[in-house]
Automatic annotation (TrEMBL):
CDD domains from the UniProt entry: GSH_Peroxidase
Originating organism: Rhodocyclus tenuis (Rhodospirillum tenue)
InterPro entries given in the database record: Glutathione_peroxidase, GPX_AS, GPX_CS, Thioredoxin-like_sf, Thioredoxin_domain
Highest taxon, organism lineage: Bacteria
Record-given protein name: Glutathione peroxidase
Catalytic center residues: C45
Length: 168
């Protein structure tokens, strides 16, 4: 019987970088070996209370290797109009966010961040669509850098716990 193939980690996701909310550069290579939950966020959205659920997941699983990465985006209903300083302050004050937050980016269109171009290609949405439809679309990435699942904005963070558990 032939040996089963060895799974080679997808280093592609670790080649991306983005600016943190404080303006410092952050390489995703620093998160190699972690389970990532990557979310486009907004401070003035009906789904904004999901920050609490995201923080709860981060606190619950961070010691086991989960990192939540928040990417503010103003492309949906102009629901993230503030500066990075305002966004950071809002998230900390209202939801106690301690997971890494990044500078505002575009997730769709010609100026979409390369990370989001990759995520959308790896995990398509409803009916095979690549476009992000709204704030709080979530992508779950395993320890090898493979994009495992894409979740709709309406999916509550707590509903991801079983899928996260399987990857930890």
């Amino acid at each position: 019987m032939p040996a089963s193939p060895t799974r080679v980690p997808s280093a592609e996701i670790y080649g991306f970088s983005a600016d943190r909310i404080d303006g410092s550069p952050q390489s995703l290579a620093d998160y190699a070996g972690k389970v990532l939950l990557i979310v486009n966020t907004a401070s003035h959205c009906g789904f904004t209370p999901q920050y609490k659920g995201l923080e709860d997941l981060f606190q619950r699983y961070r010691e086991r290797g989960l990192v939540v990465l928040g990417f503010p985006c103003n492309q949906f209903g102009a629901q993230e109009p503030g500066s990075e300083a305002e966004i950071g302050s809002f998230c900390q004050k209202n939801y106690g966010v301690s997971f890494p937050m990044f500078a505002k980016i575009d997730v769709n269109g010609d100026d979409a961040h390369p990370l989001y171009c990759h995520l959308k290609q790896q995990a398509r949405g409803l009916l095979g669509s690549e476009a992000i439809k709204w704030n709080f679309t979530k992508f779950l990435v395993d320890r090898d850098g493979e994009v495992i699942e894409r979740y709709a904005p309406a999916t509550a963070p707590a509903a991801l716990a079983d899928d996260i558990e399987k990857l930890l």
